[in-house]
Amino acid sequence: MASIREQFEIPGKMKTWSLALIGVGLAAFAIGLFTKGFSSDEHEQAHFWGTLMYNTIFWTLVCNASMFFICVTTLAMGGWQQSFRRIPEAISTMVPIFGSITFVVLIYVVVSDKHFIYHWLDTEAVAKDPILSGKSGFLNAKFFIIWTTLAIGLWSLLGWRMRQISKEADEEAMDHETGARFILRNTVRAALFTVWFGLTVGSTIPWLWMMSIDAHWYSTMYSWYTFASSFVSGMSLIALWVIYLKNKGYLEYTNQEHLQDIGKFMFAFSIFWTYLWFSQFMLIWYANIPEETVYFKHRVQGPYKGIFFLNLIINFICPLLILMKRSAKRNYTMVTFMAVLILFGHWIDFYQMVMGSLSKDHVTLGWLDFGILSLFVGLMILFVGRSLASKPLIVKHHPFLKESIIHQV
Amino acid sequence: MAKKKFVVGCFDDEEVLFPAVSKVRKAGYKIHDVYTPFAVHGLDHALGLRETSLHTAGFIYGITGTSTALGCISWILAKDWPLNFGGKPHFALPAWIPITFELTVLFAAVGMVLTFCYLCQMAPFVKKHHFHARATDDLFVMVIECTEKTNAEDLKSFLASNGAVETDIQVAEEGWWLGRYDQDELPFENKQTVAA
Question: Which of A69, A289, A403, B167 is the most buried (most CB within 10 A)?
């Protein structure tokens, strides 16, 4: 076997680009903060804080999804992902960084009592409102702050523990016994993360962070919908990094076989997302009860109509028709294109989930959204690149590495 | 269907089988098929088989299901016999999606299973020649088709020298025919005896 390039070096171009994106993002953030964030107009404020909210939440959940990917493949005794597992690991190092930004934004919104964003913060209105006072055990500032802290803290901690154990596979070859014990310890840590992931991303966190903007409305499918959205974007992000590193001549053990399996995840979870999208929509459409249709009224028939259906085309029709073919999933250009498209599509999805409720009368999509997006993309490129460079790209002595090298679909 | 002459070589190890396959192909013999007790990864590539078109067939069956469902429901509910269901429009697309989905899956699944059985020549009341009964248990059975120019004895020793544990010449039907394994006699002469 030819020599393997284990160590990623950050190219100068990547640094320049990420810093430029961060610069643009910071400028947009500053302008937004002064013109909108500090404005006395509630609409302007809702626009600014809402934009920050959906971007931070989106990127935190997307980066967290890659740790979820490692954990579920570990639990399933998967071997195929070992040749590129350092990439989802590196992406998951963003969880503490994006998580703390999310934390600051959300806690600021709650502490500064912005009840035009979270209506349930308005204690007087809640007292008079039988529905909201019924929900007040869950929707109150104290629970919000505690649960948000716990969620972000434990995602970071349990993810960090998963990455720590992965380091051991760099050090020395394992015999059968140490290998088996290593896998068992991996399984236990992955299980802990997955359980906490299920309790937060799979259920409570999307209800708390985003669904509660429409304080009266609820949908039990909302969290799964959010999870599907973030997981398919997470897989797309992993695919983009894998392809980038392949292009730079790293990841010699990763090939089209692995790419096809990543592509399958992108395909399958796009369909899963659509299944949830449709189930949520169809039941509400069919029953046609005003307190439920309130969520969809301005999205399907109001100003968000275009974005709402664009969302469905990008996130369902395109992956369905394009990624269905085996040759498309094995084609680096096609997977890159689809990954960018899916990431954009689900970013738009998060946009309409949050801003569709905060600004019901007109679509706010504009310079601020793309500016904040570029801030997050820049941060992601900068820090993921750094953490890729800090560790070898190959888990040299992982017991399942050979399975990944000979992987064939 | 035509009866043909085949040379059969049995291997007891994958690692012997793969080099043998490539040597036999390089020597210019035409491999009829390799029967294995389980799916062997990479054997299709070694045999030089093309990618199956079963998925394309499946896609076409699926599309047929989708259009059957949408065509039927929309004709019935919007044109032939419009009914008012809870004030919904006659063309109530979201309500039809589940049925459309089910019919797509049904058409694709049933169509693909039938196509698969046809391609593998499997059906009830239909028989196919078994070159070696232990292909269903522990032997990898390589079957080579003979032409007029093939020297079967040479080929047998060639296979044996490449690691075949058992070699054999058989004249057999290559396709399928009507009949049942549990009732009919095998219609070919050199009936194969299975070692106990």
Answer: A69
